Amino acid sequence: MENMNLSKHISGQFTAELDDIRNRVLAMGGLVERQLEQAIDALSALDAELAQQVIVGDHKVNGMEVSIDEECTRIIAKRQPAASDLRLIIAISKTIADLERIGDACVRIAKAALDKRLNNQQPLLVSVENMGRHATRMLHATLDALARMDADAALALHKEDAKLDREYEGIIRQLMTYMMEDPRSIPDILDVLWAARAVERVGDRCKNICEYIIYYVKGKDVRHTSYEEMEKDMQS
Amino acid sequence: MENMNLSKHISGQFTAELDDIRNRVLAMGGLVERQLEQAIDALSALDAELAQQVIVGDHKVNGMEVSIDEECTRIIAKRQPAASDLRLIIAISKTIADLERIGDACVRIAKAALDKRLNNQQPLLVSVENMGRHATRMLHATLDALARMDADAALALHKEDAKLDREYEGIIRQLMTYMMEDPRSIPDILDVLWAARAVERVGDRCKNICEYIIYYVKGKDVRHTSYEEMEKDMQS
């Protein structure tokens, strides 16, 4: 399996640049993971102060996306990378776009935490919190697979997203029941619904990142491919 | 203003490749625009057959994304483009990702059209249809700006998205009122809500594409920048 040990480069400077950009993506991933953890904490405790921190913190995520993207373009123009180096830079450039969108999902979750009336919806908050912890673990494992450029772990995680989707469908059904039983609570419950939706999207983004890992390692674009086809590709 | 007339290239073959990829993106845009039109038609008439066509047609959109992306990578590796050529390829590679996601939004709208019970929700369908036509015009104008690489048009369109957002907020309020008045209709109305949400996301994607146009023409990454800052940048 290819890995990110890029010492094969004749140009030590180029190796250092690739190492640097790889570290920056992992740092951005770490920041997004903390944002997600805190957004879920804020929602489950309806902690408005923590929610505000998450909302403000998103600027940092956005800034990292732009600066890493600039660096990717600079490296392509200056180093004219080919083969696996080019795939690495393309995979990174796509990964940061998905990390940025996970950051946006955190903001949406944090905004729901500002609705104090959700205090009356504790059972729903517990469901979303559980789903949120699940998504956080999935993001953590995705970043792990990215650090090690582990295509097998990426394939396993790709499948994990289906579980999160089922959890989400269960929550939507639960939310519908609550809305039908107490129509006055509909505006509040819609806030929970947007938060649940945002958590579900985190899983989709992790799945995308897993596809970029497989693309880098296997040199094959597996987007829009079923799990079974992917598994076959991985063995070939 | 820079334009896409790339005849300056010494390599006629390279020019032909850039022309070809530009034409393929515009063709993909045309296909996505038809998908959006048909998805809105299907929803407003609750035409299940047309909705199925849209759902099946999304495979073609996905295939175009993958093949154009491969071509972008191939050109970078083979031609080692710099400056505006590299920006063009990066702008294209990001644009097709957003076009593909607009394609996903069309599928979500088409799926709502399969809910026959929405026949009882005609006023809501009219609101979503109006918003959908608005989004379709915005996509059409975005693709126009892309064909001409017109940064001024892109900036104006970027602002247009705020109108679509307000229209969306109005629809959400309308949906809440209907749900509160008739709780039994909640599951059906949620289908309309997902469709409205998908339409709103089309506007966000168009906004992204406008940012890539500005990036190509002005050489400046304007993501996460306010309209006022952008306007200032454009004048400088």
UniProtKB/TrEMBL annotation, chains A, B:
Domain of life per record: Bacteria
Subcellular location: Cytoplasm
Subunit: Homodimer.
Gene name tied to this protein: phoU
Main function: Plays a role in the regulation of phosphate uptake.
Domain PhoU, chain residue ranges per copy: 26-112, 129-213
Family stated for the protein in its record: Belongs to the PhoU family.
Biological source species: Shewanella glacialipiscicola
Entry-linked NCBIfam families: phoU_full, PRK11115.1
Keywords: Cytoplasm, Phosphate transport, Transport
Record InterPro entries: PhoU, PhoU-like_sf, PhoU_dom
Name of the protein: Phosphate-specific transport system accessory protein PhoU
